[in-house]
Amino acid sequence: VADALSDLLFTYSADADQNLRDEGVPEYAIHRVGNVMIDTLLHFRERARESTILGELGFQPKTFALLTLHRQSNVENPERFASILDALAQIQQRLPIVFPVHPRTRSRIESFGFTERIEAMSNLCCIDPVGYFESVHLQETARLALTDSAGIAEETTVLGVPCLTLRENTERPVTITEGSNQLVGSDSDRIVAAAGAILDQDRATDYPVPELWDGQSARRIVAVLRRGFERR
User: Which residues are catalytically annotated?
Assistant: First the structure.
């Protein structure tokens, strides 16, 4: 509905452009400007690097994995949640995992009876939810991210950190075709295999970054709006 009612549509990637064309949106209304969330990331990147959270947790850069888990499809489904925990139990034996636990996720851990399984993982470091700067710092210094967040898949792509998305689909497919993201679902064997392949790689792996994800998206939006006002 928003697409149909809008005069101007600002997109972040070529596949988003094509989605709009498939909806019948006229070409003149489509403007690829990049990703405004990456504007925020790059603007505050240096400030995020001042975070002390890594030292407080006792980790050095690239010596841990970062885990976030909050989507209803994962944490409200005990079978899927259990399968993910099976994978984490194996991965944490090879690499410590920092896990900021979302309130809903914590509630489901308790209601599903997973507390003992979590506590049995000696290298799974469960912490309270963190702020934006702390999150960015943890992402940038992680060896690997495991998440069901499309936002973290976008941010890790720009930060050059390999990411495993614990879902069967993503709103940001460009992070797979032009980024550091992989879809691995909730199957424990699949997650463990993908994580192992990453940990076996050279740490200097270069990942492509989608075009225009350069921190200048808002400027491009303003330029389009200004041209429109001038024509009127």
Answer: 70
